[in-house]
Amino acid sequence: MNPIEELVNNFREFVAQVPELIQPLIVMLAGAVPFIEGEGASIIGIVGGVNPVVAAVAAAAGNFICVLLVVLLTSQARTAVVNRRSDRVGATMGATAVSGSAGGVAAVADNQAPAKPSSKGRKRFERWLVRFGVPGASLLGPLAIPTQFTSAILVASGTPRGWVLLWQAIAIALWTTIATVSVLLALQVVTMA
């Protein structure tokens, strides 16, 4: 037996010790972990002896649930920041209107901090977002960074959360399917050799 077959058999034996009803939950939890995500979790499940369809669905569901939570939290944080900024601007404008003098406008303008320049990474992301859009960023993102990070960046930059969730769901389903089919084909080749 070659080392890969031995590893697969050892992992299957380990997963076999866990009740069948809990195996998909373990795969789902693995899918929620950044850098493992749906792709890695489906491979873990299949190698562990879980039905490939069940492993893929559980892995994708775990990944999407985590992305959903990240999107909701990031959206709330962005809303709070935007509201705080608009409240601050509204308060300073209200103070100007009360003073009623042109000198008040200059004083308010002097109190506001100058806009902070964007970082090099932020500028690069904005160029990519303009070039590929949300679909491209979502579909190509898993090649570079986890979907949780991609979705947080997209929502924080002002992309509507429904649009982010739609494209992240498509990307998760696509990459999990590719990983599942690839590992099934690889296991067939290994067992035939």
Write a concise synopsis of the structure shown:
The chain crosses the membrane at residues 21-47, 53-75, 128-145, 165-187. By secondary structure, the protein is mainly alpha-helical. Helices cover 80% and strands 0% of the residues.
Q: How many beta-strand elements?
A: 0
Shape: elongated
Q: Characterize the biggest β-sheet.
A: none
Q: Helices and strands, in N-to-C order? A: HHHHHHHH
Poorly predicted regions: 97-110
Query: Which structural class do the helices and strands define?
Result: mainly alpha
What's the rounded overall pLDDT mean? 82
- Helical run tally: 8
The amount of beta strand, in percent, is under 5%
Integer tally of domains:
1
- The helix fraction, in percent, is over 70%
Distance between the termini: 10 Å
Radius of gyration: 24 Å
Protein name: Small multidrug efflux protein
Keywords: Membrane, Transmembrane, Transmembrane helix
Transmembrane segments: 21-47, 53-75, 128-145, 165-187
Organism: Arthrobacter parietis
What does this structure look like?
- This protein is mainly alpha-helical and about 190 residues long.
- It has one domain (about 5-75, about 120-190).
- It has helices at about 5-15, 25-30, 35-45, 50-100, 100-110, 120-140, 145-155, 160-190.
- The longest helix is centred in the middle third of the chain and has 48 residues, at about 50-100.
- Keywords: Membrane, Transmembrane, Transmembrane helix.
Give the helix/strand layout:
Blueprint lengths: L2 H14 L6 H9 L5 H11 L4 H48 L2 H10 L8 H21 L6 H10 L4 H32 L1
